[in-house]
Specification:
- It is built from four helices and seven strands.
- Strand 1 and strand 2 form a beta hairpin.
- The chain has a seven-stranded antiparallel sheet, sandwiched between helices.
- By secondary structure, it is α+β, with helices and mostly antiparallel strands.
- The protein has one domain.
- InterPro entries: DUF3293 (IPR021710).
Amino acid sequence: MPTNSALHQAYLATCYRVTPDTASAPLDLHIGQHHAVLDEHLRAHGFEQAAFVTACNPYSAALSAPHNRQHMAALHAALRAEGWSFWPGLGIPDNPGWSAEPSVLILGMDRPTACVWGRRYAQNAIVYVRRGQAPELIWLEAPAQP
């Protein structure tokens, strides 16, 4: 559970936008709200679950756009190297003072694996979704302090 309730509330209020393919309209996912159209896309592609992950702004420390692009390129390359399929995403904050974060929805990724990937890219949380259920925010444990 996060120690910063304002940050936690900001994550809960974020719109997690996914674009399944160029022929589909973007899907706006919200924590705690089931999305039947996402279910249909997952079913059509043969997946039961997925995870929304970013590599931007590690531990909510704002980075420059070029640095975030580098982090996302590394995430894309690592996912491809391990054979994961993913759709582009965007975390759109409710707070107008914050910038949207490029992200991905990783198809078929289970919750424990998603947590590993989130920690690997120094994230506070990931979003996990299982077909037929609402997306859930999974807060990751903070790294051990030296």
